[in-house]
Design goal:
alpha/beta, Rossmann fold, 6-stranded mixed β-sheet, 6 strands, 11 helices, single chain, globular, 2 domains
Length: about 300
């Protein structure tokens, strides 16, 4: 049976990302082989995740900590991709998301280097993140990792690795409209406020060097990161990957429209289309400072 256009579109657009961000190739092929209709998406991916979760919990019971960490982290990534753009059925999305968070949290003490689930105060709410510090480094610099519209901290392990192996700590967090914050807090253009809250949190940690903070972002995060760097002077370096210059011009596909509407807490398509252009060129030209002072960030190889 031919796959419906929604399934084909998601696989064409994001397929390589699944593998790059930690989905085993076998699980990828087994999942897509069983998915013909979009309605099957979350259920099939969650079933693949459940296999790794069971192996991970069994390994935990047997004190096979390395295997437990690997299986549970994989389960978290698979559960994440079960929910990531499946906004048509929020009950399924919520259940898969809760599993993603639970599995990665269980994995954190058993991966190398270990991770820590952290709670970051933010405007009367709490943003949750994953902090990982390189082994054997006292007060390392830290990279704040900004998610995209459909990404979350549970899929960041492979991206964290590139910094950790260079003796830089990572703090991947779910900001407004993302991951654990997406239900209570809508997408907001002035994302520097969330990043400033993360910087405030870093300053409370004696095991991190708050004088050397960088910011990294992918997709929507590729807009959020440089915007944060424009306003938050504690940021000493910035990496932006594939961020939109004017998101209003990008709204057009059914996947993007619906996901953006839900994450922006818009009441309908018209309101979503009013919000979209604010994220990017027009908002940036109004508010971003005309000149930014360069900062020094120690080079790590």
């Amino acid at each position: 049976m031919a796959k419906d256009s929604r399934v084909e579109g998601v696989l064409e657009r994001w397929g390589p990302r699944f593998i790059a961000n930690g989905v085993p190739l076998t699980d990828f092929h087994e999942a897509i082989r069983k998915i013909d209709k979009w309605d099957d998406w979350c259920r099939v991916w969650a079933a693949r995740a459940k296999l790794h979760e069971a192996m991970g919990r069994d390994a935990l019971d047997k004190h096979h900590d390395i295997s437990a960490g690997e299986h549970l982290q994989t389960a978290g990534v698979l559960y994440h991709f079960a929910k990531f753009v499946f906004v048509e059925d929020m009950a399924q999305l919520n259940a898969a998301h809760a599993k993603a968070v639970d599995c990665r949290t269980l994995a954190l003490p058993h991966i190398d280097p270990p991770g820590e689930r952290v709670a970051i105060p933010y405007e009367g709410h709490t943003l949750y993140g994953v902090l990982r510090r390189p082994t054997g480094v006292q007060r390392p610099p830290v990279v704040v990792m900004c998610m995209g519209m459909d990404s979350a901290k549970e899929e960041m392990a492979t991206n964290e690795y590139h910094f950790l192996r260079r003796d830089i700590a990572t703090l991947a967090f779910d900001g407004p409209g993302q991951g654990e914050a997406e239900y209570d807090l809508p997408i907001r253009p002035d994302y520097e406020k969330a990043v400033s809250a993360v910087c405030d949190f870093i300053e409370t940690r004696t095991d991190l060097d708050a004088a050397r903070i960088a910011v990294w972002g992918v997709s929507f995060g590729g807009y959020y990161a440089p915007r944060a760097a424009a306003f938050e002077k504690r940021l000493k370096a910035c990496i932006a990957i594939s961020g939109p210059f004017d998101f209003g011009r990008l709204v057009g596909t059914s996947v993007t429209n619906e996901v953006f509407k839900v994450r922006a807490h818009a009441q309908g398509p018209e309101q979503a289309l009013d919000v979209a252009p604010v994220l990017g060129r027009r908002f940036g030209h109004q508010d971003v400072p005309a000149s930014l002072e360069p900062h020094a960030f120690d080079r790590h190889r």
